[in-house]
């Protein structure tokens, strides 16, 4: 079949050989065998007018790049294949598999591809031809290349004669070789069957309007899958694997599925790709789940089935058709020996693909992981979702917006608010369990890391879906993505939700009631005006992530604020490392946030009052510290973190008051528990939460400004 959209026309050259007669075929066959040896395997065309297969031979090396070398070889032996000098072969693909190179040619006539006609030449690394398959339509009588019907006429013919078929909007002009040496000019219209998974291509004669052929482009096989995951439903279902284009492996219109080869060490967890899933004698892929296994074919079937589902769904439902390199499929590579999953370009072909690993549990058994990673490609098609910065420091929000939409695409397709409910049974990580039915709001749920910040937006999107339904909510989500800048934060996402809902209302996609649901969700999750400042009160504990890049001081990008009310004797932020951390420094500014500026790629803190270095386990301002606590003052603080890896910390806030004279209240109770009424210079106290541990330490408090702390990136 001719391939569309390839970088064709690299070579277009007429083959200059005389039409083959029986005697010239005999003589060229003899010449070929003389040159390449009698062991060459030749197969004649049914009509006896040429050879359609030549293998088991080794030619002399042919000079030039593979496409030119292949063409030169075809041309030299044109008599053997029976080429007509009027025909033209175009190179449509040069592929390398293992050590061999395969050059694919398509036949064209008057600039119009001839359906299924062409040739394929196999070359070895020394440029020697090892096989030729030649299927050309020579000697046909071609219909006029100027169609009498438009594509719209062809659609009309299909609608009136085959009303159960819905054109997908993909059509192309081609010659269709028939019997009696003729070739008809046809419109090939791709359709979908309303009542089955069939995807027939209909061939309408572009002169007569006659339907010449309708052939299903799907290859059918059944496969065993979980749907959506074994926690939600442990049944292994036997399902049709739709849209396969191969009968020998999991290649299809919308998906191709592979396994990683074993890691070779270091960071390359998926150095190559192999395939473990082969069809049985009936063409089916009926494997049982096997855990643990890094070679189980069930994983590959899961990869194919669920990638096909979301990739075709986004086009069918919303017209979002992912394409790259002229094809619609996206590759999935499973069975990686590493407990993570990502979207990227694993095979360096310039197209997005997704890679899915496992720890104690195979993430590929959880369809939400496949959908989530595919969702990243949807997001990135509309926005770069890049790195952002403002006066509060680096802003990890674009990553949070990205993760929020990816979780949303997974949850909305499955119709379940849980993401990663099977994968997260193992080690929680980038794909830890998230429930979009939770209620996350800004700024309480800011943690300084994309996945953990994302619920502020993803739970709002889920609320909207619950309120207006999947179809409308998905359309709104796509519109918002389409409208975002390359560095959106949660505030921008919230504003875009409001304005895109309004825009969709004006075009009739959403109703007034729908827009009210959207407005309420945006308000409910405090998205508009969302700032990366978390206010902490007495008794609050708040997790946060400190990003890490080896050797650099990386600001957290989140600021915290403690307020010292009149009468407060002590204000303490206890800081505990939850995971293996690095070194950190705390910056404090009174009255306004610690301020950053970026010049070039150097980030400078240019406004702060105090700096506490040496990874203090708490920072305290009290009556006895130097400097002392100041009443009616907002203390803003943030962190610089120096580590190779991201680390998790927790803040615990204590705001203490004098011991009570009478009637204790809640705050006073805490005071009695925790605050010694001793001066800071009392020694011998080793309790962590006693202020004398950290203050005063003149060496760690600097009141100069603009320390020149830099983040190189
Ligand atoms: Zn993600």
Assigned CATH superfamily of the largest domain? GOLD domain
**Beta fraction of the residues?**
25-35%
Could you please say which CATH topology of the largest domain applies here?
Jelly Rolls
Structural class: alpha+beta
Strand order, main sheet: write it out. 1-4-5-6-7-3-2
Total count of domains = 5
The global form is elongated
How much is the average pLDDT? 83
Number of helical elements: 13
N→C terminal distance = 48 Å
Percent range for helical residues?
10-25%
Assign the CATH architecture of the largest domain.
Answer: Sandwich
The biggest sheet, with number of strands, parallel, antiparallel or mixed sense and barrel status, is: 7 strands, antiparallel
Total E-strand runs: 35
Bound ligands, each once: zinc ion
Residue stretches low in confidence (pLDDT < 50, at least 5 long) are 1-20, 662-713
Name of the level-1 CATH class of the largest domain:
Mainly Beta
Q: Characteristics of this structure?
A:
713 residues, binds zinc ion, disordered N terminus, alpha+beta, 7-stranded antiparallel sheet, Elastase, domain 1, single chain, 5 domains
């Amino acid at each position: 079949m001719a391939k569309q959209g390839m970088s064709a026309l690299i070579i277009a050259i007429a083959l200059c050989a005389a039409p083959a007669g029986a005697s010239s075929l005999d003589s060229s066959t003899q010449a070929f065998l003389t040159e390449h040896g009698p062991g060459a395997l030749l197969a004649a065309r049914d009509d006896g007018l040429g050879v359609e297969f030549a293998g088991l031979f080794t030619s002399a090396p042919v000079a030039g790049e593979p496409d030119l070398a292949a063409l030169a070889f075809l041309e030299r032996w044109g008599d053997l294949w029976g080429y007509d000098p009027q025909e033209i072969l175009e190179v449509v693909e040069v592929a390398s598999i293992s050590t061999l190179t395969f050059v694919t040619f398509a036949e064209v006539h008057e600039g119009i591809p001839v359906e299924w006609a062409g040739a394929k030449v196999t070359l070895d690394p020394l440029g020697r031809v090892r096989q030729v398959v030649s299927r050309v339509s020579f000697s046909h009588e071609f219909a006029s290349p100027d169609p009498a019907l438009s594509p719209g006429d062809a659609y009309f013919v299909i609608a009136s004669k085959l009303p159960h078929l819905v054109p997908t909007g993909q059509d192309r002009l081609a010659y269709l070789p028939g019997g009696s040496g003729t070739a008809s000019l046809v419109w090939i219209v791709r359709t979908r069957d309303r009542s089955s998974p069939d995807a027939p291509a209909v061939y309408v004669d572009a002169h007569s309007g006659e339907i010449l052929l309708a052939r299903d482009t799907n290859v059918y096989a059944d496969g065993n899958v979980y749907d959506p995951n074994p926690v939600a439903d442990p049944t292994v279902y036997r399902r049709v694997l739709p849209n396969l284009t191969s009968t020998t492996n999991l290649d299809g219109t919308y998906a191709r599925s592979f396994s990683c080869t074993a890691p070779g060490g270091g960071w390359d967890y998926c150095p190559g790709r192999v395939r473990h899933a082969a069809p049985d004698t009936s063409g089916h892929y009926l494997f049982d789940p096997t855990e643990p296994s890094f070679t189980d074919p069930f994983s590959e079937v899961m990869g194919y089935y669920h990638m096909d589902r979301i990739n075709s769904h986004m086009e069918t439902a919303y017209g979002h058709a992912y394409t790259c390199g002229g094809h619609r499929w996206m590759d999935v590579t499973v069975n990686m020996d590493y407990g993570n999953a990502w979207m990227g370009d694993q095979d360096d072909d310039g197209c997005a693909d997704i890679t899915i690993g496992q720890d104690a549990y195979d993430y590929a058994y959880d369809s939400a992981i496949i959908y989530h990673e595919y969702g990243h490609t949807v997001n990135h098609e509309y926005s770069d979702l890049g790195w952002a910065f403002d006066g509060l420091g680096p802003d990890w929000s674009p990553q949070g917006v990205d993760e929020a939409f990816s979780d949303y695409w997974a949850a909305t397709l499955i119709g379940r608010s849980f993401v990663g409910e099977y994968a997260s049974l193992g080690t929680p990580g980038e794909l830890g369990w998230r429930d979009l039915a939770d209620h996350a709001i800004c700024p309480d749920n800011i943690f300084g890391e994309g996945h953990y910040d994302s619920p502020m937006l993803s739970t709002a999107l889920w609320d909207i879906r619950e309120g207006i339904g999947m179809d409308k909510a998905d359309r709104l989500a796509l519109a918002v993505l389409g409208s975002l800048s390359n560095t959106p934060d949660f505030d921008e996402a919230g504003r875009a939700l409001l304005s895109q809902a309004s825009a969709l209302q004006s075009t009739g996609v959403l109703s007034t009631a729908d827009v009210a649901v959207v407005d309420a969700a945006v308000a409910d999750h405090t998205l508009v005006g969302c700032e990366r400042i978390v206010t902490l009160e007495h008794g609050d504990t708040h997790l946060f992530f400190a990003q890490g890049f080896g050797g650099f001081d990386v600001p957290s990008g989140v600021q915290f604020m403690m307020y010292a009310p009149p009468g407060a004797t002590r204000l303490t932020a206890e800081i505990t490392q939850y995971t293996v951390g690095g070194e950190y420094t705390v910056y404090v500014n009174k009255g306004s946030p610690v301020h950053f500026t970026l010049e070039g790629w150097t980030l400078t803190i240019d406004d702060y009052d105090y700096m506490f270095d040496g990874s203090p386990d708490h920072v305290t301002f009290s009556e006895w510290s130097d400097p002392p606590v100041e009443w009616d003052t907002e203390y803003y603080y943030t962190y610089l973190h120096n580590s190779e890896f991201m680390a998790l910390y927790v803040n615990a806030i204590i705001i203490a008051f004098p011991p009570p004279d009478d009637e204790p209240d809640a705050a006073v109770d805490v005071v009695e528990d925790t605050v010694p009424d001793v001066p800071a210079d009392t020694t011998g106290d080793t309790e962590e939460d006693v202020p004398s541990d950290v203050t005063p330490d003149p060496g760690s408090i600097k009141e100069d400004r603009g320390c020149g702390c830099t983040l190189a990136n």
